[in-house]
Amino acid sequence: MKCRPNMYKVKEIKLADQGLRQLEWAEMHMQTLMKIRERLSKEKPLAGIKISAVLHVTKETGVLVRTLHHAGAEVYLAGSNPLSTQDDVAAALASEGINVFAWKGENEKEYYENIETVAKVSPNIIMDDGGDLHALVHEKYYSTNIIGGTEETTTGVVRLKAMEEAGVLKYPVIAVNNAFTKYLFDNRFGTGQSAIDGILRATNIMIAGKIVVISGYGWVGRGIASRMRGMGARVIVTEVSPVRALEALMDGFEVMPIDKAAEIGDIFVTATGNINVIDMNNIIKMKDGAILANAGHFNVEIDVEGLKKESKQMRNIRPFTDEYLLPNGKRVYLLAEGRLVNLAAAEGHPSEVMDMSFANQALSVEYMIRNKDLKKAVYNVPEEIDNEVASLKLSVMGIKIDEMTKQQKEYSKQWKYGT
Predict the structure, then answer these.
(1) Average model confidence (pLDDT) for the chain?
(2) Pick from 254, 184, 182: which is nearest to 219 by CA?
């Protein structure tokens, strides 16, 4: 482990050249963010701004961090999951002067120590993925230097809204997750593809003909269910929301309680953001050979601790695939230790979809710097930013769309015309 105090702590700095090639590849596929970087590099709106970020340290995150750096910011970066860091990318960013504290395979103590390292540098902007950094800053490291923050995920936004409602939120936060150009694409298309990628890399199984159980039919669950069906799976959805359950049913999926689905599923994927969605009462009913994967932010959706405690034996079969021998003699296979399967066992979302998510991040940070009088609340991404990201994305894809005529604009604002 190479370490230079107060600068970086990565697995191996010699991986930097490989990481730089990864960043080059990602930048080629993230032209929206590159267009934004071009402008920010000239204007330097983040000059003198210190940013502390806890994000998945992937090549796509690297493109965002480079963009913030080009805009003038001093960036401190830690990983938002112990298994999601791409070590070559972390090394590449460290070699370019970014303060990186992340490596793949951190234990729990190291994970929180790295977050603490970036929390205590007295930042102006907090960028988070999951809410751990926001929570730690509020508990131990808040300072009046903080202008505001952003949050990337559904899980983190839920935590921040709870803080706002409890009256303890100490600075404004923009919920990047709530942008249309984030959740409609990143959560649905990004996770829909990358979660299956992680499952396939960990197992190399055939999807066609399998019964796949998706717990949760939010945007992430919708994406995974849709793509699993596209690969020939028979998909069952479990839900606690009657509205989402009805939607899943009318989208053509079977809907039933997890206790019943547990008996017939071949592959189980959790996507709820809640705890013990699949517990030992469910697991003990599963088929011999059932596969368990999680696509939610934290490793709490599957009862991993219960599985470890009650199993007669555990052995690693393949990278990111652990076999648990249950008391009844059946075997179940847990992928990526119950952590985010798309980032732990694969590379996360494709660059093209993270292009929009991180364009929202960069523009939201700039918005915070230009609007320092925001109240202590959780805000949605401003509509003009959402539209700018969508327009830029269409432009770099070579797609043109219609514009309303003057007559149509006037008609859309009037109330007198009827049938």
Answers:
(1) 96
(2) 184
Neighbours of 397 (CB within 10 A): 11
| Alpha-carbon Rg for the chain in angstroms | 22
Cβ atoms < 10 Å from Cβ of 116: 15
Three-state SS at 393: helix
Residue 55's beta-bridge partner residues?
79
Task: Record the pTM.
Answer: 0.92
DSSP 51-96: EEEEE--SHHHHHHHHHHHHTT-EEEEEESSTT---HHHHHHHHHT
Q: Which residues are annotated as a binding site for NAD(+)?
A: 153-155, 187, 216-223, 239, 274, 295-297, 342, 349
398, 78 in Cβ contact below 8 A? no
For 296-348, how does the pLDDT look when each residue is reduced to its tens digit (9 = 90+)? 988 999 999 999 999 999 999 999 999 999 999 999 999 999 999 999 999 99
Listed residue (161, 123, 167) closest to 142, CA to CA: 123
Binding residues: 58, 129, 152-155, 182, 186-187, 216-223, 239, 274, 295-297, 342, 349
Q: Which domains does the chain have, with CATH numbers?
A: 2-182+349-396 (3.40.50.1480), 191-344 (3.40.50.720)
CB neighbours of 5 closer than 8 A, spacing ≥ 6? none
Q: Is the confidence at residue 417, as pLDDT, over 80?
A: no
3-state helix, strand, coil in the chain (%, to 5): 45, 20, 35
Contact 137, 159 (CB under 8 A): no
**Residue 1 and residue 8: Cα distance in Å, rounded?**
11
Task: Show binding-site residues for substrate.
Answer: 58, 129, 152, 182, 186
Strands (E) across 197-312 are located at 211-215, 234-238, 254-255, 267-270, 290-294
Q: Give the model confidence (pLDDT) of 227-267 as tens digits.
A: 999 999 999 999 999 999 999 999 999 999 999 999 999 99
